[in-house]
Amino acid sequence: MLAWTTSPGSPGGLLLREVDEPVPLPDELVVRVEAVAPNPGDLAALTGAPPGAIPGWDGSGVVLQAAADGQGLSVGERVVFLGLAARGWAQRRAVPRAMTAAAPADASWEQLATLPVPATSALRAVRRFGSLLGRRLLIVGATSAVGRFAVQLAARSGAVVVAVARDQSQHAELHRLGAHETHTDLNSVSPGVYGAIDMIGGRHLVQTYALLDRGGTVIALGHAAGADEHFPFGAFVADPATYDRAITSFFLGSEPELAKEMTYLAADRELQFGELDVKAWTELAAWIAAGAPRPSGRTVFTVDHEEPVS
Ligand SMILES: NC(=O)c1ccc[n+]([C@@H]2O[C@H](COP(=O)([O-])OP(=O)(O)OC[C@H]3O[C@@H](n4cnc5c(N)ncnc54)[C@H](OP(=O)(O)O)[C@@H]3O)[C@@H](O)[C@H]2O)c1
């Protein structure tokens, strides 16, 4: 079969070449991969990956071989999957059944491939706050893949959603997804924030923390700005209005079983996937070599197969 493998010196650091078929562990399915959607995490993991490794976490496809332990999805079922151990940018892959979910027939392969890491991260982050009914939740970087899902899930949880996204042309869309307030930067956000999910980091994390009510928490989920955080003296000095505020880090893989969350999200007909930039997978390395441009929405690659679709 064909797979993209890490290859220092090749364009984008990747080479499409023949590799061995996947050999599944007893709790793994073998999937015929139809679409893959690179995450910032996938791209970051390319640096430092050993030569010859197959990168790639998120995708969608059809089960070719059920897990040998007899549990999970059956042959022929549509599946959406996440494999943090990578191996996804291939025509076929083995994936732990704990990282798979049955996919509905009416969602496209491309839409489904964009779901795993962003939507499950958003769900787990929103859940950490407990009841959000009537509480102000700030989402920083709301036009990111995680941010869009977080806006939708927080709004349906009853939160008063305050969305921050630097691209004002996306604010009407964020309102449509459920945001109650939108801002291009944090300077115009009023204090009194119960909780926050920050996808950007750097000065955004510093400013977000300062907007919290006492007892409030920022989940530092993402670090898209790639910038240091400098807190001014006094940021952690508590007074009656500001005590017990917290910043917490986040790792999607902290609980390895993702099947239940992905099944819920994949079956959700209300969830909006957003604009997709669909390309053939032969363009993957060139896209990475060009800096993984993100013109609008998420970039998804459809996988070619030598055999006809069954
Ligand atoms: N800890 C975990 O387990 C976990 C899980 C999932 C994701 N993440 C992290 O979460 C972050 C978001 O992931 P994603 O897939 O949602 O990313 P994404 O779809 O690629 O979106 C990145 C976002 O960052 C914004 N951005 C980039 N640089 C910025 C800057 N300097 N100032 C302001 N905004 C900036 C972009 O704004 P524009 O749209 O205006 O360009 C875009 O909205 C990434 O850092 C990712 O690695 C972490």
Automatic annotation (TrEMBL):
Molecular function GO labels: NADPH binding; oxidoreductase activity, acting on NAD(P)H
Keywords: NADP, Oxidoreductase
Residue ranges of domain Enoyl reductase (ER) in the record: 9-305
Highest taxon of the lineage: Bacteria
A Pfam family reported for this protein in Swiss-Prot or TrEMBL: ADH_zinc_N
SMART domains per UniProt: PKS_ER (SM00829)
Protein name: Putative oxidoreductase
